[in-house]
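Fold it.
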Amino acid sequence: MKTSFAFALIHLLTLGAFGQTDQSGCEDHAIITRYPGAVIEYCDIQVYKEYGIATGPETGYQKISDWTTIAGKLTRLYYSIKGDRTVTEVYRNYMSALGTAEFDILAQGLNGERNVAKTVGGNGWLNTFYKTNSFPPGVGIKINQGSATIGGTFHIAGRLNNVYVTISGKQYSDNEVVVLLDVIEQEDVEDNLIKVDADYMAKKLKETGRVALEGILFDTNKATIKSESEPLLAEIGKMLKANPSFKLYVVGHTDMIGDLRYNLELSAKRAPAVVNYLVEKHGIALARLSPQSAGPLAPVATNDTEEGRSKNRRVELVLTDHQLLPR
């Protein structure tokens, strides 16, 4: 029976290899401690963040098709292990610890030698994975960097009740293995501080000609609408039925992560998905809705933070030109 979250790879070392000490303010997460000799060089905690768990290989250029999106408190820890440890040793130790703690392994892969593999845990795969689960540039994380003596790579994703972990490692050089650990404690966010209902949307459309909606959610890198979007989509249907003269552009927006062309194509798929949903599930006439794509070209917030990117990933309803109401 899975009743305990706490476990250890091996006893916690507060002093790392060669007398190095952890980055100020950083400490191990209670659920999983460090590999012996590891030093924390970067840490970050976000109270609420969306996170993509990838469970399959790359299926195209910088594209992984199989994702599960979760959200909750994210603790990110980046470790450096100096000395003669190998990436294979580190991988096996983590796998053993997760097994002992009865984690369900969602994805795992090891490439013991230098590689550009697109399978789970491959060097190419890691580059794509961390485009979705990005980290700030300039903080010293070398999981997606190389050196003249770069070696193997690995990745593990696991789940224990409401806690998910992802662990990625790389033999950065002959004498250093780096590990990036993410712990996501899944929970619901308090997101009803502003009630986005039919009356609110109609009011915004009449006042400004547009309303931005962050609550229409899709599977990562897909145009598949998540079931939790239904309450908001139902309110859109209610609003349109109460205002039969409204004709709308349904505009898909993305953040700036990834290739411009890819993001434009993604939003071009998501907007029709919303239109089709409203037509098929809520009986709205197709002639009243026109899907459009803006991709990342009309941000409303910075793309340098997850909070800003989440605001940019949105669907906007815009009254068609001839529907704009005089002020």
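Residues 1-18, 189-194 have pLDDT under 50 and may be disordered.
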